[in-house]
Specification:
Low-confidence stretches: 1-35
Shape: globular
Radius of gyration: 23 Å
Number of helices: 17
Oligomer: single chain
Strand content: 15-25%
Distance between the termini: 35 Å
CATH architecture of the largest domain: 3-Layer(aba) Sandwich
CATH topology of the largest domain: D-Maltodextrin-Binding Protein, domain 2
Number of strands: 23
Number of domains: 2
Structural class: alpha+beta
Length: 537
């Protein structure tokens, strides 16, 4: 997932009014069922930045968007297969530059109006033109045509064999254009600055998914109710309440006490303390990982040549780190591409070799080591406390005479730092926005324009750019799947050699829930697919 944002200005300004409405509706109290139906209560640190489909970008947003806004195609339960969504079929031309989607005539929005091609075009153009956090999904789109009410033809400016993955992302969900326009939503680039729909989206939804928004109280509750007019298989559970419970321990306690049915962010260590007989705890591999990032071009010009970056990689005991931070409940990650994603299979595991690290430092004229600053976000990601993680890294690097000066800061300060003058060493996290490898290449590879090419200050350091990666990426996106994945494998090997990004651990995901809940699973895009959940009869 992309880096979560703080609550936007509009969300913050609407907070008092929405909280008042929420209290009036009983949001602060124990959830009540609709009629005789029992609500599903989920504990989660909400951290919602927006509920506007064109502006939203957060983990909770993934859950919400996938439940409320259908996409034209979906990801199967195997987390890899593309299946029909709003589109019952689709075609792709030979070089992956033209994608044609044929919408299902049965598809309707929650108000009963038909989902039409114009709504798809409107939604995707608005996402692009408002330049929200996920607008990059459609940056290669040249045109969107609607030859009839149920056909959408997308032409790209260059080949992209992963475009289907991007339209699976929850942020590509289709909005009822008529309803949203009536409440201030605009779609053109020229009108983007006058779009006033975000406050409306905090209290209303306009999708065709199995759920609709019932109410939202920031930092309190996000409440959904079943869309009884859903055009596809209806959700079994009539009401879902995602309740604000910030930390892992509190979530586990709420689950064991019966106050909630699902705890979504229980850490592996905390999971070991859950012993309630009516609670199930499963640990499954995830596609998320945490990593170190080195910035040779940061302020002060730290001595981070290739041999030094390689030495840092060799100096860390990765298996011990996994045990130390998450009690062994994680995976080794060879490259900044999740295990199981295209191109990641068969890569060498990260190696711990202090002797080799010292030799590399000596070859760089740094036998006696050096000192450098490490600014990092003082947060907890996927059950890993970042301060604990960085203290471990500090101790490991001290073995090769590299002294880290740890500077934990708030997330906004960290983001400002890495976007500005930089910090020689930091740590962060990443989770997928869709099943596709190009998002990782475009984020972590040493190509002009990628997130960490910029943040590492690569443009200020000779020899940092790796043009071969860009060449291979362009070729991969224009190739059939089997050839594409081989090219991604080549890119992955180059990214390992860059040694700007050093993956540390892929934490497992803990599924913790009451035994009465069925259908629990981890999803790449939805995280927790609400429409698949049900209570045991």
């Amino acid at each position: 997932m992309t880096i979560p944002k703080n609550v936007s200005g509009l969300v913050a300004s609407a907070r008092v009014a929405i909280l008042a409405a929420g209290v009036a509706a009983g949001l602060g109290a124990t959830a009540s069922a609709q009629g005789d139906e029992q609500p599903l209560i989920i504990a989660r640190n909400l951290a919602v930045n927006s509920l506007d489909p064109a502006r939203t970008s957060c983990d909770t947003c993934n859950i919400y968007m996938a439940a409320v806004y259908d996409t034209v195609v979906r990801l199967g339960q195997d987390n890899k297969t593309v299946e029909p969504g709003l589109a019952e079929r689709w075609e792709v031309n030979g070089d992956s530059t033209v994608f044609t989607f044929h919408l299902n005539a049965k598809a309707v929005f929650a108000d009963g109006s038909p989902v039409e091609a114009k709504d798809v075009k409107w939604s995707w153009e608005r996402l692009t033109n408002l330049q929200g956090g996920m607008s990059w999904l459609f940056e290669q789109v040249k045109s969107i045509e609607t030859p009839d009410s149920h056909t959408v033809v997308v032409t790209l400016s260059q080949p992209d064999s992963e475009f289907l993955g991007k339209v699976i992302a929850p942020y590509s969900g289709v909005v009822n254009s008529k309803v949203a326009s009536q409440h201030g939503a605009k779609t053109s680039k020229e009108e983007a600055a006058t779009d006033t729909a975000e406050p409306w989206f905090l209290a209303n939804s306009a999708g065709s998914g199995p759920y609709v928004l019932a109410a939202y109280a920031p930092d309190s509750e996000l409440r959904l109710k079943r869309n009884d007019h859903y055009w596809n298989k209806q959700a079994d559970i009539g009401e879902v309440v995602i309740r604000q419970v910030k930390d892992s321990v509190a979530q586990a306690q709420s689950l064991m006490s019966g106050a909630v049915d699902i705890a979504t962010e229980v850490s592996p260590d905390t999971a070991k303390t859950i012993s309630a007989p009516d609670v199930t705890v499963q640990t499954v591999p995830s596609y998320q990982f945490l990593y170190l990032a080195l910035s040779p071009g940061a302020k002060g010009n730290p001595p981070l040549s290739v041999p030094v970056r390689q030495a840092i990689g060799y100096a860390i005991d990765y298996k011990k780190l996994i045990d130390f931070t998450i009690g062994g409940a994680g995976q080794l990650v060879p490259v900044a591409i999740p295990n199981g994603f295209p191109g990641a299979d068969g890569l060498p595991a990260p190696e711990y070799n202090v002797k080799k690290a010292k030799e590399l430092l000596a070859s760089a004229g740094l036998k006696d080591g050096f000192t450098m600053e490490a600014v990092f976000p003082n947060e907890n990601y996927y059950g890993v406390d970042m301060s604990t993680l960085m203290q471990f890294v500090q101790q490991e690097l001290a073995k090769v005479s590299i002294q880290l000066q740890l500077k934990p800061v708030t997330f906004p300060v960290w983001l400002q730092t890495v976007k500005g003058e930089g910090t020689p060493l930091t740590a962060s996290f990443y989770g997928p926005d869709y099943f596709g490898t190009d998002q990782y290449v475009r984020t972590f590879a040493m190509m002009p324009g990628t997130r960490w090419y910029t943040r590492s200050g690569a443009e200020r350091v000779q020899g940092m750019a790796n043009p071969k990666e860009k060449e291979l990426l362009d070729k991969a996106l224009a190739s059939p799947v089997d050839q594409r994945d081989k090219l991604y494998h080549e890119i992955a090997q180059l990214m390992i050699k860059d040694r700007v990004i050093i993956p540390l651990v892929g934490p497992n995901t803990v599924l913790a829930y009451n035994n009465k809940v069925e259908g629990m699973r981890y999803s790449v895009v939805a995280l927790l697919p609400l429409q698949e959940l049900r209570f045991k009869k």
